Amino acid sequence: MQTYAEIHARSRRDPEGFWAEQAAAIDWMKPFGRVLDPAAKPAARWFVGGEMNTCWNALDRHVAAGNGARTAVIYDSPVTGTIAKFTYAEMKAKVASFAGALAARGVVKGDRVIIYMPMVPEALVAMLACARLGAIHSVVFGGFAANELAVRIDDCTPKAIVSASCGIEGTKTLAYKPLLDGAIAIARHKPEFCIVLQRPQLGCELVKGRDVDWAETAAAAAPADCVPVLATDPLYVLYTSGTTGQPKGVVRDNGGHAVALRYSMSAIFDTRPGEVFWAASDVGWVVGHSYITYAPLLSGCTTILFEGKPVGTPDAGVYWRVIEQHGVATFFTAPTAFRAIRKEDPDGKLIASRDLSKFRALFLAGERCDPATLEWAMDKLKRPVVDHWWQTETGWPIAANSLGIPTGTGAHFPIKPGSPTKAVPGWDVQILGADGHPVPAGDIGAIVCKLPLPPGTFPTLWNAEKRYVDAYLAEYPGYYKTGDAGYIDADGYIYVMTRVDDVINVAGHRLSTGQMEEVLASHKDVAECAVVGVADEMKGQLPLGFIVLKTGVNRPDAEIVKEIVALVREKIGPVAAFKQAIVVKRLPKTRSGKILRGTMQKIADGEAFKQPATIDDPVVLEEIRESLVPAGYAKTPA
Ligand code: COA
Ligand code: AMP
Predict the structure, then answer these.
(1) Which of 32, 58, 108, 525 to pair with 504, CA 20 to 30 A apart?
(2) Is position 493 within any domain?
(3) Within this chain, do residues 481 and 540 fall inside the same structural domain, yes or no?
(4) Which residue has its alpha carbon closest to ligand 2 atom 3?
(5) How far, in Å, is the centroid of ligand 1 from the Cα of 327?
(6) Atom 21 (ligand 2): residue with closest C-alpha?
(7) How far apart, in whole angstroms, are the C-alpha atoms of residue 459 and residue 453?
(8) Cα(475)–Cα(445) distance, integer angstroms
(9) Is-contact 29 258, C-beta < 8 A?
(10) Which of 44, 20, 11 is nearest to 473 (CA)?
(11) pLDDT, tens digit, for every residue of 615-627?
(12) Would residue 305 count as lying in a domain?
């Protein structure tokens, strides 16, 4: 049997041969002509000319193979006290009907459909129904405000929006409909219709002539068949934070995505057809797209849709209850969830009381996994805990301890806390210095991936090809710039340490400080502002605002800060977790006027820092420290 070293080397030496073999695990309606078109612009394209359908591969194919009675989806919702199971045959029927309902209202291949939904099975049904028709879905996370939804409506101009009356966040029932209506009112583009799922916990009024009730529409619809699409046709657009208020619409194609995700389930997650895979995330994030919806179903596994939190629904033992009750083999979540659990159950007593005999491995991603969290999880679970690294842009892991690939020396590579281990087959990860050349092992630099990127990665940004080139390809010709910085050690282990841009990671959620600054700057009393990500024990990072008030403003600081916090919640949403801002006299800047955000973050976190040589006025740093201390920051003298 080939080992990791041989498989990885082959995937880079002969990418076409390697990925053509993986593509055999997918049903094609028309074979692809070329495995890879390296000359395509702006990025190389995979499986050119091939036709397939992602929904067919996720559902119909398994039914056709005689596995229709296998459980496809388990909906476990501690917040509503519901557990429901759907077989592959049932999911196929639901998806075909809902696709029929969309088609009856004119949705065709290439149309966009926004899905703004909580964690209910209908969210998966809507995604797969779009895939069935070749329509392009764009799922928007429920924690975003109406304004953010409006930005996405205007960018991808959907023909339809699928939503629900409410979401349930822990103990709170949140009305979604006012946000939907608010977003449509703000947006320049108006959808032709909305389909709204009425949830029993909180119903809503439908807008006559625009909104239709999910239950009535789906029941009345004639089931729709799978529409063949090109491998290179988009399956979805998923918006993610960039450096500005305008989010980036990451485009995912159909063919490469299906091939790569299916491969990842066996090679990385070592999970086989019929086994239960659980990603405790949200369908609004890439983890939810790839590892709640698509990869498990493409692989014939059972996926779990969990509507709850790691703590408080009802307690820090809920994950272990779900794993025991549904026989989960592989579990995936973000380190922040484990920090929340550890805080409430430090000795892991709630873990010890459960039968976790089917549970083989835990995968953590979405943010840097601090060694203490990884070690705690390994100690309490006595199973491999795999830190793996990827991004919305890549759609599947770049680096991992790939449990399905023989190492030649053991069941998996030795785990080094703080490192997501090695590049996955298909990926060539390198570290480049400021001069654009590779740096020696152990030296920090920009983490880049040599082109072409493997299948399943983003071929462009929606409506923004130039931004795609400028943001990802221009700085290091021949490489994809990940936006992360780190190093590779002498054993080839990758360490992802920090972002090089204005992106921060709050409870595994990717947010843009630049976007928050745009909101702060829009407040009438703010002259200047900066937002940095400061360390937080549970969420990893939290945004902290610094504001300089306009001359003549003499209202109490606390009043202005309260308004600013409310403004971020209103414009971006509760997910931004923006709760704290400090009024300062001046912001530290370089002589050329660049705000020294990195230095401010270090002062707030009480870390040692070097005073930048280009600083305009060093006294400002001390002023900043003095402003931070009363708010509980800058604990260690800077
Ligand atoms: N719809 C509406 N509001 C939402 C939401 C959704 N889908 N998801 C989160 N929010 C709200 C929360 O209610 C909270 O609002 P509040 O300010 O009124 O309390 C706010 O957004 C921040 O949410 P969150 O960051 O999730 O914080 P929390 O304190 O509610 O929970 C954790 C903290 C650690 C328990 C939680 O972040 C968690 O479960 N993380 C797991 C990691 C994860 O799922 N990552 C996804 C990528 S893999
Ligand atoms: P997202 O696009 O939301 O998945 O966020 C991607 C970003 O999260 C990456 O660019 C990293 O900055 C960070 N990230 C995700 N997983 C890891 C990990 N395992 N280790 C370190 N950082 C990570």
Answers:
(1) 525
(2) no
(3) no
(4) 510
(5) 26
(6) 368
(7) 9
(8) 13
(9) no
(10) 44
(11) 899 999 999 999 9
(12) yes
Domain check: are 179 and 235 in the same one?
Answer: yes
Q: What is the CATH number of the domain that holds 77?
A: 3.40.50.12780
Residue indicated by tokens 């449509």: 184
- On whether the CB atoms of residues 112 and 136 are closer than 8 A, the answer is yes
392 CA: nearest ligand 2 atom: 2
User: How many C-beta neighbours within 10 Å does residue 416 have?
Assistant: 16
Last residue of a domain, one of 485, 517, 534: 485
pTM of the predicted model as reported, rounded to 2 decimal places? 0.96
Q: Which residues contact 506 (CB under 8 A, 6 or more apart)?
A: 533, 536, 539, 540, 541, 542, 543, 575, 576, 577
CA of 313 to the centre of ligand 1 (A): 13
Q: For residue 438, say if its preceding peptide bond is cis, omega within 30 degrees of 0.
A: no
CB crowding 87-110: b at 16 or more within 10 Å, else e: bbbbbbbbbbbbbbbbbeeebeee
Task: Give the integer Cα–Cα distance in Å for 34 and 39.
Answer: 12
Q: List, for residues 78-94, the tens digit of each pLDDT value.
A: 999 999 999 999 999 99
DSSP-derived secondary structure letter, 67? I
Which residue of 458, 510, 513, 539 sits with most ligand 2 atoms within 8 Å of its CB, as the best mutation to test the pocket? 510
Cβ 577 under 6 angstroms from ligand 1:
yes
581 lines ligand 1 (CB under 6 A): no
Residue 16's domain spans which residues? 4-485
Q: How far apart are the C-alpha atoms of 533 and 233, rounded to whole Å?
A: 37
Distance 575 CA to ligand 1 centre (A): 6
* Closest residue by CA, ligand 1 atom 3: 143
> Same domain, yes or no, for 533 and 447?
no
Structure tokens at 488: 């590779």
Which residue is closest in CA terms to ligand 2's atom 9?
391
Residue nearest to ligand 1 atom 43, measured at CA: 281
Whether residue 229 lies inside any domain: the answer is yes
Q: Which ligand lies nearest the alpha carbon of 279?
A: 1
Q: Does 528 lie in the same domain as 467?
A: no
410 shares a domain with 471: yes
- Rounded to whole angstroms, how far apart are CA atoms 516 and 532? 10
Alpha helices, DSSP H only, in 24-115?
A: 54-55, 61-62, 88-104
d(CA 400, CA 398): 7
Whether 174 lines ligand 1, by a CB cut-off of 6 Å, is yes
Q: Which residues face 173 on adjacent strands? A: 168
Regarding the beta carbon of 496 and ligand 2, being less than 6 Å apart is answered yes
Q: Is 388 in the pocket of ligand 2 (CB under 6 A)?
A: yes
Number of structural domains in the chain? 2
Same-domain check for residues 109 and 247: yes
> Mutation test of ligand 2: which of 496, 500, 503 has the most ligand atoms closer than 8 Å to its C-beta?
496
Task: Indicate if ligand 1 lies below 6 Å from the C-beta of 313.
Answer: no
CATH assignment at residue 536 = 3.30.300.30
Instruction: Clarify whether residues 280 and 378 are in a common domain.
Output: yes
Q: Residue 455 falls within a domain, yes or no?
A: yes
pLDDT averages per 10-residue partition of the chain, 638 residues: 96 98 98 97 97 99 98 98 98 98 98 98 98 98 95 97 96 96 98 98 98 94 97 98 87 98 98 98 97 98 98 97 98 97 97 96 96 96 97 98 95 96 98 96 97 98 97 97 97 95 92 94 96 95 97 96 97 96 95 92 92 90 94 78
Question: How far away, in angstroms, is 560 Cα from ligand 2 center?
Answer: 33
The reply to whether ligand 1 has any atom less than 6 angstroms from the CB of 452 is no
463 and 513 within one domain: no
